[in-house]
């Protein structure tokens, strides 16, 4: 499955300042202290990665990407972590995410919730499927008044998927996996030209 094109991008929220965005993304105090007033999003990402603040870099990216592309990123990481012979539950969650990314209907969104429960949120695939469920629509039954998810619930679940993918097996290799996953996410940023040629912009999408 290829990256969704920019014309298919969903859910581009109101821009925010970089300090506001770091608060929303729940970066740690040390990471927030590294933010310079002149930093572009790309420059700040470089600071986080160079300082090996990998979880904070993942949080930043998860909130910066539009929801559909962020979920695709989570799916790529979760699929890699699942290996060649995933359990039926994990495979079911991965398949549910892929179906929604290629066909983002409400029926596919709702189906992802059962898949997330089956895989459990202890798995990257389960977290990625939950991110789909939080991507829009209502969290309540279809025949009840709508209960919209919080604006950043998808980004939180994407963060969980990517972080879990790095540590669920061979945790001693987590730093290398973090770097690889962050690189994948930055490729999506580049393809969508989210931060422009100079890395500008405020960084916020979610």
Strand content: under 5%
Query: Which ranges are low-confidence, i.e. pLDDT below 50, for 5 or more consecutive residues?
Result: 6-13
Class by helix and strand content? mainly alpha
Number of strands: 0
Radius of gyration: 16 Å
Number of helices: 10
What coarse outline follows from CA principal-axis ratios?
A: globular
The average pLDDT value, as a whole number, equals 90
Biggest sheet descriptor: none
Helix fraction, binned, reads 55-70%
First CA to last CA: what distance?
Answer: 21 Å
| Pattern of helices and strands | HHHHHHHHHH
Précis, in short:
By secondary structure, this protein is mainly α.
Give keywords.
206 residues; single chain
Structural account:
The chain has helices at 18-24, 29-33, 41-50, 54-64, 67-82, 88-102, 106-119, 124-133, 153-167, 174-192. It is mainly alpha-helical and 206 residues long. It has a domain at 84-171. Helix 6 (88-102) packs antiparallel against helix 7 (106-119). The radius of gyration is 16 Å and the shape is globular. The model is unreliable at 6-13 (pLDDT under 50).
Topology:
Blueprint: H1 18-24, H2 29-33, H3 41-50, H4 54-64, H5 67-82, H6 88-102, H7 106-119, H8 124-133, H9 153-167, H10 174-192
Helix pairs in contact: 4-9, 4-10, 5-6, 5-8, 5-9, 5-10, 6-7, 6-8, 7-8, 8-9, 9-10
């Amino acid at each position: 499955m290829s990256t969704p094109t920019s014309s298919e991008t969903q859910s581009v929220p109101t821009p925010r300042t970089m300090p506001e965005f770091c608060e929303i993304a729940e970066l740690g105090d040390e990471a927030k202290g590294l933010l310079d007033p002149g930093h572009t999003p790309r420059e700040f990402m470089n600071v986080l990665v160079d300082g090996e603040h990998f979880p904070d870099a993942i949080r930043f990216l998860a909130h910066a990407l539009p929801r559909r592309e962020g979920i695709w990123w989570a799916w790529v990481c979760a699929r890699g972590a699942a290996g060649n012979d995933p359990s039926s539950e994990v495979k079911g969650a991965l398949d549910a995410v892929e179906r929604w990314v290629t066909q983002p209907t409400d029926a596919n969104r709702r189906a992802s919730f059962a898949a997330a429960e089956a895989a459990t949120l202890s798995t990257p695939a389960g977290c990625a499927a939950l991110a789909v469920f939080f991507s829009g629509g209502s969290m309540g039954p279809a025949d009840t008044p709508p209960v919209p998810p919080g604006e950043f619930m998808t980004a939180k679940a994407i963060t969980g998927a990517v972080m879990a993918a790095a540590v669920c097996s061979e945790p001693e290799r987590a730093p290398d996996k973090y770097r690889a996953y962050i690189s994948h996410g930055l490729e999506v940023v580049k393809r969508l030209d989210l931060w422009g040629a100079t890395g500008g912009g405020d960084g916020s999408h979610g």
